[in-house]
Design brief:
14 helices; globular; 3-stranded antiparallel sheet; alpha/beta; Spore Coat Polysaccharide Biosynthesis Protein SpsA, Chain A
Length: 447
Amino acid sequence: MRYDNRTRYNNIAKEMKKLGELSLLGEKGWIVNMNEKEQAVREMLKKHGQEQLLACYTKMDKNKQEKLLDEILTIDFPQIEKLYGKSIQKEVISSASIEPISYIEKDKIEQEEKQKLLETGEKLIKEGKYAVVTMAGGQGTRLGHNGPKGTYDLGLESHKSIFEILCDTLKEAQRQYGVYVPWYIMTSRQNHTETVDFFEKHSYFGYPKQDVFFFMQGELPVVNEKGKILLNTEGLVNQAADGHGGIFVSMRKNGVIYDMKARGIQWAFIGGVDNVLAKMVDPILVGLCMEKKVLAGGKSVVKACPEERVGVFCRRNGRPSVVEYTEISKEMSEEREENGELKYGESHILCNIFHIDAIEEISKDKLPYHSAHKKIEYMDSQGNIVKPTEPNAYKYEAFLFDAFESLEDMAIMRVKREEEFAPVKNATGVDSPETARKLYKAFHGME
């Protein structure tokens, strides 16, 4: 959250306190001294069998000691115990619970209908009732980039970063619709300061500073294979981002939902930072959702082949959902319709819009967490840094598409890869800067 707009922050803080979202941690009168705080933490750790978190405590300076105690006091230990209990269980999905979902192909919408959808969506956007949320908590490590992924130079002649490329689409929307679409950017603890500084250094790429709002992604402790929470290399709680599905809770806790409602926002796009062709302001998708009277919409592209490692839109137990490539059998992934198209072929490209009512409702209950067995560097009880060569710990993430199952229905609109999907994920090969740059230049007639 940006703190330079004092009035705005104070209003949000008052609202959050009223909703019971502000922690008492650190407020005067809760714990009056370090001795009390340490005693409370030791009792808590003993109760949950996590005493190892204070193994290096006496070797720390006072500031780091207090930071560690504060971190421990915010841990939901029963939640971590529950998640660890499910870590070794693999969900089995039966084919009977999954079925294809209907979609509308953007290019095949009749001209008269398309014009109607366009006008409906444009009207809402022009009235200032639309916002964009970009999930930008990741680092560019896989790209060989030392910094937030959004600061990565795509390699264009202009040397524009991914953030600037995305901002260009918002500036184009301003020229088309006469309004500045509010831009909410979710950072992480690792890259928040660097991201804000990057925007400051580049004068927000010419976008109004008051229409850019930064907020941080949530985190969850990492546990080893015995269920013990690990320390990071600094001796503090080893925490990992809670996945893109944590965005709804983060939006509530950081005052984003309140700010949107105060601005009169009705619909918001939520997407990742790494798609340089993302059409974040699309009146046709907005109009389609409004016409169908649904609270969410998503864009899909045709799955390149049955083996492509992507999640696809589907219906799970009658509700809209996304099935991951690890969840369905080879037979299901290869199954085809009478027209020859894959039965489960609508790739989820993380370009979705939600009505503010859906965002608020979803934010009230945490989405289910999924575990991932990873190699996690940590500090052991003797203060040694351990760099594992094999997976040694579990991190927990929520997936945004699990929110779909709370909805009765949603609109799916198929778009063309070459027009709206150029992800930057891998250093080389598929979905790399090279492929994204080529798609971006072709779309904009630069080659």
